Amino acid sequence: MPTITKIYSMLEASQHNTRGDCWIVVEGKVYDVSSYLDEHPGGDDVLLRATGKDATEEFEDAGHSKTARELMEKFFIGELDDETPPPIPELQILHKKNHQSFQNLPTKIINFSKQSYWFLPASVLGLSVLVA
């Protein structure tokens, strides 16, 4: 008999990111691991860092055992709605000093093109006069 599964958006799952209310997403499934934080062998900070994003890669990289995968089913609360886009990460602000070397690049290119703009037609005209 089919089981009814609750569907969550990534935004909704990412809002449960505290020690008392911690959800993670692994392989499109949503897990409420709040009660498991103290028991997790890797520590609660590992699970807390996994909130708000798809933690499948981190989960696979950790090399969890079959027993750990079976234990996860105890915390399963629903599936991720794959049609909603993930939340947009915050933009990183770059330091102004990184941009100073590129600030004058467009004007240098424009100045170069203005200087060489007359050179090509003059060269063609000069060559045609010589050939004639």
TrEMBL record:
It is found in: Endoplasmic reticulum membrane; Microsome membrane. InterPro entries: Cyt_B5-like_heme/steroid-bd, Cyt_B5-like_heme/steroid_sf, Cyt_B5_heme-BS, Cytochrome_b5. GO terms for cellular component: endoplasmic reticulum membrane. SUPFAM superfamilies: Cytochrome b5-like heme/steroid binding domain. One of its GO terms (molecular function) is heme binding. PROSITE patterns: CYTOCHROME_B5_1 (PS00191), CYTOCHROME_B5_2 (PS50255). It is a single-pass membrane protein. Keywords: Endoplasmic reticulum, Heme, Iron, Membrane, Metal-binding, Microsome, Transmembrane, Transport. PANTHER family: CYTOCHROME B5, CYTOCHROME B5 HEME-BINDING DOMAIN-CONTAINING PROTEIN. Belongs to the cytochrome b5 family. This is Cytochrome b5 heme-binding domain-containing protein.
